[in-house]
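Here is one chain, start to finish.
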Amino acid sequence: MKLKEILLILEEMAPLAYAEDFDNVGLLVGDANAEATGILVCHDALENVIEEAITKKCNVVVCFHPIIFSGIKKITGKNYVERAVLKAIKNDIAIYAVHTALDNHKLGVNKIFSDALDLVKTKILIPKQNFIQKLVTYTIPENVETLRNALFNAGAGKIGNYEDCSFNSKGIGTYMGNEDSNPEIGNRFEFVENEEIKIEVTFEKQLQSKVLKALFTNHVYEEVAYEIYDLQNAHQNIGLGMIGELKTPMNENEFLAFVKDKMQCGGIRHSAFIGKSIQKVAVLGGSGSFAITNAIQAKADVFLTADLKYHNFYEAENQLLLADIGHFESERCTKNYIVDFLKKKIPNFASALPAGRIILSEENTNPVKYL
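Its structure:
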């Protein structure tokens, strides 16, 4: 099985277009045309993890955090990033990172976090902005069904839990072709008035080229009239963080003890208890101080995240409990999810890797230790 086949599966799990602009996701090291001998899944692709991949004969390392985050001008082995990259290159090992592409997925990091705490009625805490576009086009009634279905098949028309969504309205289109035209209806230099159907569909912006290809391939007109708009609507199924509810409320002390056990935390730093029963829980795996206000606005009783600074705890404003459970701890279940996803998907390929060659790394890459 070639690496490029595995990349398609990984992008199905965590579409690269979902990643934040600051991030560095996708194939970081390696040749997409190389044959894959095995996949090692880890949290951080450190030097010891690359060594583990070599030992276990895996030439693909799928990591959550990108080992190359900002630009590298030299690879001399002077720091942990360069040493890991150098070892990977020397041993023909590919490195692929998912990070915020999986953070923003509705079934990704924060759904995994929520499921670990048995939360119900979950939804995205911060829906992604500027991610939806709208296509408007016009065609004759005889072409409507074919064209509309082609747009749906290209990914347009999905809204929340619904698909094949469109709005259609009748009108009169006019045109007159010049000497180089070849009109579907009417003749050159003839002014044509014809009944047309206006079709409107929305789609995620990364699908634009696919949607336009479907439009041009399935439209009957020689010249296709269309418009694309950027919408301000938030995408309710893509975004950072998640909010849900406990099946049974707990007091603050019980809840933090529950979290510490479920997420295997070495310790939890938290704001002052305010005597509030905990039922509505907001979570954001990794560094989440920027989302404190969102958690308060969502009426959460508690916000679980990581990397909170001293002054962030003041931002609780006695409206909710803030808890820093540790960066690694808040994302610890992610690598297990990736392994399970790959094992379910790979067998669908005729020449796929045996499921046993998709391996969960045994290296603990958490740099934070506790007394």
